[in-house]
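[User]
Um, C-alpha cells okay?
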Amino acid sequence: MAKGGNAGFSADLVKFIKDWKDKPGNLIMILHHVQEEQGYISREAAFEVAERTGIPLARVYGVISFYHFFKTQKPGKNLVSVCLGTACYLKGGQDVIDECRSLLKLKEGDVSTEDGLFSVEPVRCIGCCGLAPVMSVNGEVYGKLTKAMVKPILDKYRQ
C-alpha cells in the first residue's frame, strides 16, 4: 500500500478518494474526509492520500500544514479548547492555556498528552465573550476563568 504504511482507510473513504480524485479542490475535501474518519491525518494517511490521488506528497503536506484545521497528531480523549479571541485574550486567555499546558506537562509543539487523555488547542472564539476568559472541554464551556480554576476542571475529566 502506501510507503508510510497502511493508513487503515475504510471502504467508504477509499471510494470517496476515488470519486474525488480528478475533481477541482479535491485535496482539501479528501483531507477533511480523512480527518473526519480518523480524527487526524497521520503520516501514513498523508502517504496514502498522495499515492491514491497521484498528488505529490510535498503538496499534500503543504496543504495540511497551511490550514490550522488539519491535525497531524492523534487527538486526546478530552479536547480542551481555550479561547484566544480578543475579549478572552485581554482577560487572561493566554494564562489559561499556559496553565493547561503546564498542568498537563505538554512541551512546545505537543498537542496531546502522552497518555492520550487530553488535547489542548487555542481557538479564536467560543461565542461566550461575556464570560471571558473561556475554555471548553468536550464542548462543555467554562467561563470567567482564573489559573486557579483550571486544575479542578481538568481533574474532573481525568476520572
